[in-house]
Amino acid sequence: MPLEIVRNDITKMPVDAIVNAANSSLLGGGGVDGCIHRAAGPELLAECKTLGGCKTGEAKITKGYRLPCKYVIHTVGPVWSGGRNGEAEKLASCYRESLLLAQKYECETIAFPLISSGAFGYPKDQALKIAVETIGDFLLQEDRKVYLVVFDRRSYSIGEKLFASIAAYIDDHYVQQHVDLRVECLRRVAPCYGAPAQAFPEPSACPPPRLDAALKHLGESFSQMLLRKIDQSGMTDAQCYKKANIDRKLFSKIRSNPDYKPSKSTVLAFAIALELPLEETRELLQTAGFALSHSSKFDIIVEYFIANSQYNVFEINEALFAFDQNLLGA
């Protein structure tokens, strides 16, 4: 998956390059900066002394030394001062310049911390939004694997309004599904027998779907339906799999194998990339043997975004991560 949000210690990431949220001297400091210098050893500081510092929004590169990465890319984020001094553009520049350096040095895998969100005081939800948007824009043009590494839950935050809205949607649908499951089962059984629901004892499970209804969906496989919808959308294959946060190699497998069996997160990632409404999303899921379920928080969160016509896979993954769910595109 091109962009993945993970909880980890960035000094332990086995990638081509990690990004250091440094200060302008590049001579080490607290937080992520201090951890990286301690893990890399004194050789990193010795090389940093030769670089002449770094301006806010720019980036410089060194070797990784004792770290499990080839390179360390040092970038200086802005200090938060209320958002009135160009902090957003400077922060976005940190990510862009770091990615360009990674590209120049042929780094295929890059790990970022959430820049400026610690001692520099940038609000975590705004810092996260800029990180995801900037990295996402870059990945629409380049094939790279990028990790956004957060150390713990306190290091991560989506907007309070969005979190509350999603939480309310989960509560309205997830709880109702469990409370009303028996009633819904009875409602579905009764018409099959031409009798009111009250006439039946509690069933242990709902009846299976009608065979003819199930068989009518066998005409088109997941791969066939996906490729047809990509053609109808006017997107190229690359535009679609990048919008879906899907690796090119995985897409090649899907294209070359009409009977490919995807994961549920892969199907939903493509539904988001194609901006399918809920009914078409359900149809695409059905070709792969899946369905949206109100007993799954993962499904409800994705449904929330589709129902609100919000189709940015990276923003959806922010929310999924905040609620401890798997990410789209995995």
Automatic annotation (TrEMBL):
UniProt-listed PROSITE patterns: MACRO
GO molecular function: deacetylase activity
Pfam families: Macro
Domain of life: Bacteria
Listed InterPro entries: Macro_dom, Macro_dom-like
Domain Macro: start-end pairs: 1-167
CDD domains reported in the protein's UniProt record: Macro_OAADPr_deacetylase
Protein name: O-acetyl-ADP-ribose deacetylase
Protein's organism: Candidatus Pullichristensenella excrementigallinarum
Lineage of the organism: Bacteria, Bacillati, Bacillota, Clostridia, Candidatus Pullichristensenella
